[in-house]
Design a protein that fits this description.
The complex is a heterodimer. Chain A is an alpha/beta fold. Chain A contains 10 helices and 10 strands. Chain A has a single domain, classed as Rossmann fold (3-Layer(aba) Sandwich), CATH 3.40.50.300. The longest helix of chain A has 18 residues. The model of chain A has no long low-confidence stretch (mean pLDDT about 90). Chain B has a single domain, classed as MetI-like fold, CATH 1.10.3720.10. Chain B is elongated. Chain B is built from 11 helices and no strands. Classes of the chains: A alpha/beta, B mainly alpha. Chains A and B meet through helix 2 and helix 3 of A and helix 8 and helix 9 of B.
Chain lengths: ~250, ~270
C-alpha cells in the first residue's frame, strides 16, 4: 500500500536520507525509531512534500501503485489531501492561536469533504464525546486547551476523515506519561475502528513497544534494522539497536 | 485586579480623555480658536481664559484642543498608511523568503541607515503644504520598523505546523496570508503601531516646531510650540508650557500603553 524505494534526500549537498527502502503494509502500524537527527522526520516530510526548497529527492514513494514523486504538484496535493492525515509533534503549533477550535476543525475536516457546518457539528460532537474531550471544546481557543487535549483534537480530525494513511511525527513527545498512555490507547482504537495504515515516528521505545506491528530502526539517514516488535526488542541484531534497547531497559 | 492592569486602565483613561477632548473640541472650546482680540494679548491664565491668551489675543485652551485634533489626525493617518505599507512589504519579504527577501531587506536596510526624520525633513521642505501632505510624507517614511516586525512574524509563523497543514491541504494563498499569517501577526503589529503613533506625534511636533510642518495658520501642538519660542522671552510661559504638557502626557500615555501590551505579548508568545 505504501512503499518507499531507494529514497535519497540531500539538503545543500549533505545526505540526510541515504538510499532508504521500506514498505508500510496496509492496515498495520509501522513505527520508525531512532535518535534525534537520524532522518525520521525528514522521511515524513518527503512523503508529505514538505521538504525545504533547497532539498533534492531521488527515488520513489509509491502509494496504491502510484509514484507520488513523479506526479505533478497539484496531483500530489490532491492525493495527500484525499488519503493522508498527519499529526505533528507540537499540538499547540498545529492550530492557529487566534481561531476557535470549531472553525479550525471544520477547516481541517468537513470543508475538505465539501460538507456543511451542520453536518460537521452533528458528527464532530459524537467524536469529541467519544474522545473524552470537554463538551465545549469546539467553542474554545487552542490556548485554553492542554497539549493532551489538542493532540486528541487532531485524533478527532483523523476519526472524522477516516484517512487511508495516518502519519504521526512524535505525537506523544510533548505529553506527560498519563496523557501519553491515553493518546496511545485512542490511537490504537482509531486504528482498529478505521483499519487505517499508520506510520508513526518516535524516539520513545515504550511507545513503539506498546503500539507497533512492525519496527524500522534508523541511524544516520539509513535503516539499520527492521522487524516485528519481539524481534527488535528480544533479539536485536544491529549493534545500534542493541545499544538502544539496552539503554532503554 | 493586578497593579499592571490598574496602571493600563489609568493610562487608557488619561489618553481617552485627551483624545475625547480634542475630538469634540468644536463643541467644547470656550472661544473660536482663531479669533483675535488685541485688547487681551499675552494674558496669563485667568478666570476667562483658563490657559491664558497668545500674542494675538487668541485663547490658548481653545487652540490647544483644536490643535490636538490636527496633531492626532496627522499621527493617525500617517500610522495607518505606514502600517499598510509595512504589512505589505514585510509580508511579501517574510512569506516568499529567499532572493526576494534578501533584496527587499537590503533595500530596507539602506533606508534604515538614513534617520527617517532627515528623509521627512527633505520631503517636507520640497512638498511643504497641507496637513494631508504632511501625513502622507510621514506615512511613506515611517513603515520600516513595521515591515521588519511583520517579516519576522511571517518567518516564525510560516514554519509552524498549522501553516504546513494549510499548504498541504491546498488552502488558497490569500487565506494563508490573511487568515493565518496576518491574523496571528496582529498582536505584534498592534504593539509596533502604538509606538509608531507616539513617534508620529513627536515628528509632527518637531517639524512644526522647526517651521516646516503644519502651516502656521492651522493650530497644532507643534505650531503652538513654534509660535511660543519668542514669547517665552517676554515672559508668556503659558504659551509653551501647556502645549508642551499636552504633548508630554499624550506621548507618555501612548508609550506606557505600548509597553504594557508589549509585556503581555511577551508573556503569551503572541
Amino acid at each position: 500500500m505504501f512503499k518507499i524505494e531507494n529514497v535519497t534526500v540531500r539538503i545543500n549537498e549533505k545526505f540526510i536520507l541515504n538510499d532508504l527502502s521500506f514498505t508500510v503494509p496496509k492496515g498495520q502500524i509501522t513505527v520508525m525509531i531512532g535518535e534525534s537527527g537520524s532522518g525520521k522526520s525528514t522521511m515524513l516530510s518527503a512523503i508529505l512534500g514538505m521538504l525545504p526548497a533547497q532539498a533534492t529527492v531521488e527515488g520513489s514513494i509509491f502509494f496504491n501503485g502510484r509514484n507520488i514523486v513523479e506526479l505533478a504538484k497539484q496531483d500530489q496535493s490532491v492525493l495527500r489531501q484525499r488519503h493522508f492525515f498527519t499529526i505533528f509533534q507540537d499540538a499547540a503549533n498545529s492550530f492557529s492561536p487566534t481561531q476557535k477550535m470549531k472553525q479550525q476543525l471544520y477547516g481541517l475536516t468537513a470543508l475538505r469533504m465539501g460538507q456543511t457546518k451542520a453536518v460537521f457539528l452533528a458528527k464532530m460532537k459524537h467524536i469529541v464525546q467519544d474522545l473524552h474531550l470537554p463538551a465545549d471544546v469546539l467553542e474554545r481557543y487552542p490556548f485554553e486547551l492542554s497539549g493532551g487535549m489538542l493532540q486528541r483534537c487532531m485524533l478527532a480530525c483523523a476519526l472524522y476523515l477516516a484517512p487511508a494513511v495516518l502519519l504521526a511525527d512524535e505525537p506523544t513527545s510533548s505529553l506527560d506519561m498519563l496523557h501519553q498512555q491515553e493518546f496511545i490507547q485512542q490511537l490504537k482504537r482509531l486504528h482498529t475502528q478505521l483499519e487505517t495504515t499508520v506510520l508513526l515516528i518516535t524516539h520513545d521505545l515504550d511507545v513503539a513497544a506498546s503500539i507497533a506491528d512492525f519496527i524500522l530502526v534508523m541511524k544516520n539517514g539509513e535503516i539499520v534494522e527492521r522487524g516485528q516488535v519481539t524481534e527488535i526488542f528480544e533479539q536485536p541484531k544491529h549493534p545500534y539497536t542493541r545499544q538502544l534497547v539496552a539503554h532503554h531497559f | 485586579m493586578r497593579k499592571e492592569q490598574k496602571m493600563l486602565i489609568f493610562w487608557l483613561v488619561i489618553l481617552g480623555l485627551l483624545v475625547g477632548f480634542t475630538l469634540f473640541s468644536s463643541w467644547l472650546v470656550p472661544f473660536e480658536p482663531n479669533a483675535m482680540d488685541m485688547n487681551h494679548i499675552y494674558e496669563a491664565p485667568n478666570g476667562t481664559h483658563l490657559l491664558g491668551t497668545d500674542q494675538l489675543g487668541r485663547d490658548v485652551l481653545s487652540r490647544l484642543l483644536v490643535g490636538g485634533r490636527v496633531t492626532l489626525f496627522i499621527a493617525t493617518l500617517s500610522v495607518v498608511l505606514s502600517s499598510i505599507i509595512g504589512i505589505i512589504y514585510g509580508g511579501i519579504s517574510g512569506y516568499f523568503g529567499g532572493a526576494i527577501d534578501a533584496v527587499m531587506m537590503r533595500i530596507l536596510e539602506a533606508f534604515l541607515t538614513i534617520p527617517s526624520l532627515v528623509i521627512v525633513l527633505a520631503l517636507q521642505a520640497i512638498m511643504q503644504g497641507s496637513v494631508w501632505r504632511m501625513a502622507m510624507i510621514m506615512g511613506c517614511t515611517g513603515w520600516f520598523v513595521t515591515a521588519r516586525i511583520v517579516r519576522s512574524e511571517f518567518i516564525r509563523l510560516k514554519e509552524l505546523e498549522f501553516i504546513h497543514m494549510a499548504k498541504m491541504f491546498r488552502t488558497p494563498l490569500w487565506k494563508i496570508l490573511f487568515r493565518h499569517l496576518l491574523r496571528n501577526s496582529l498582536p505584534a503589529i498592534f504593539v509596533v503601531t502604538i509606538f509608531n503613533f507616539a513617534g508620529a506625534i513627536f515628528t509632527e511636533v518637531s517639524l512644526s516646531f522647526l517651521g516646516i510642518g503644519v502651516p502656521p495658520s492651522i493650530p497644532s501642538w507643534g505650531t503652538m510650540l513654534y509660535t511660543a519660542q519668542n514669547d517665552l522671552l517676554v515672559g508668556a510661559w503659558w504659551m509653551g508650557l501647556f502645549p508642551g504638557m499636552f504633548i508630554f502626557v499624550t506621548i507618555l500615555c501612548v508609550q506606557a500603553i505600548g509597553s504594557r501590551f508589549k509585556q503581555r505579548g511577551g508573556q503569551t508568545h503572541v
